[in-house]
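Quick note —
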Amino acid sequence: MGKPAARIGDMTAHGGVIVTGAPTTLIGGRPAARVLDQHVCPMVTVLVPHVGGPIIPPCSTQVLVGAMPQARVGDKAICLGPPDTIVQGDPTVLIGP
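Predicted structure written out below.
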């Protein structure tokens, strides 16, 4: 079964949000998030802020948005701490592998 499609404003496990996406592809009224789109992370490990970074492959291998794989719930993003996981997406748009 597919996973909910990620978009700008969707949450990550570290409490951050996705902040960039495809401006020409809207999912539930918000730009779609893809590989290399950015997220921010508010967490701190000891005194080191995690900051955030890009969503990393593989994401969806079958759905491309602007020639980039579509991100889904469960996909990962780079963080200065451990990788961050996307935990929120549009439940009405399910994206396969």
